[in-house]
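Minutes, project check-in
Item: structure for the 337-residue chain
Input as provided by the requester:
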Amino acid sequence: MLYVCACCIILSMIKVIIGVNEQNQRLDKFLRKYLGNAPLSYVYKAIRKDVKVNGRRSHEDCILKEGDELSLYIPEAELAGMRRERRPVRVRRQFGIAYEDKNLLVAEKPFGLLTHGDKNEKKNHLTNQVIDYLIQNGDYDPRIEKTFVPAPVNRLDRNTTGLVIFCKNYVTLQTFNRVIRERGIIRKCYLTITSGEIPGELHLFDRMIKNEATNTIRVVDSAAEGKTMETMVRPLFTGGGYTLAEVELVTGRTHQIRAHLAKEGYPLIGDPKYGDPAVNKEMKRRFGLTTQLLHAYSLDFGQCPPGYEYLDGKTIRAEVPETFKKVQEELIGKVNY
């Protein structure tokens, strides 16, 4: 279609129909993704002058609904430059699948794999591996999606293993981004081995301040400034000066488990940032261990939002890695998880 403005400059009118994977988001948020290469100033100028929703000018905070029609009065060549081409990335699958349904995939992330890419690794990370798997299975087709890309709602560090939740559609992603932040819906538990025998359950509540330069956090008193940090620690087995512990994250801060337990005098074995250097030296000598053992092994679903009630009461577990088992058996003894 063509649109002739008052100055007789002919512009293309591009129509975009909002689908189920674009609904329930602000107009500016949608356009920031749809025009992925455009600077923010361009997006907001376009909203004021070059975009209509259902034939009318709209504000940036307009919430889009399924079936809404966007009209973009932008030259095609200019629009093409602003659109970010999303090409599928073929990568070798390294993750396991702990659970999958039409809305969710819960992946088992192996040791050494990033959840998202970074400046050093843009291709082979867990998110690209999951997207490639969903494309191959026919659960996601980037050619027909306007902005949506399957994404995780929780993140694990490179050297932490275990469960990562991916959402297959935008409604689920929007819902579980909220769910993962709310208390009492998904209970997230980790396994770790600490230096020192923890005598009983610990309920830790403090605040944390992050040092961006060193990518470390400092645990401060609960009355001080900083973000709140709450952790539950349950010793499962102790022996030989070590503890196999289950740790429940109530909040989800950077390095929370590692820093919180170190502050209490029970650092994770092998932890290069918060651990005991003497213990770490011994772990490297005996096992070749150069990083902490931390495994996100359990997700327990409580009262889920409408549409996801089928998950109520469900527990998803990830198999404990063999390296973790070997170290734990030699330090503490064989146990049944």
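Outcome recorded: Confidence is low (pLDDT under 50) at residues 1-9.
No further action items on this chain.
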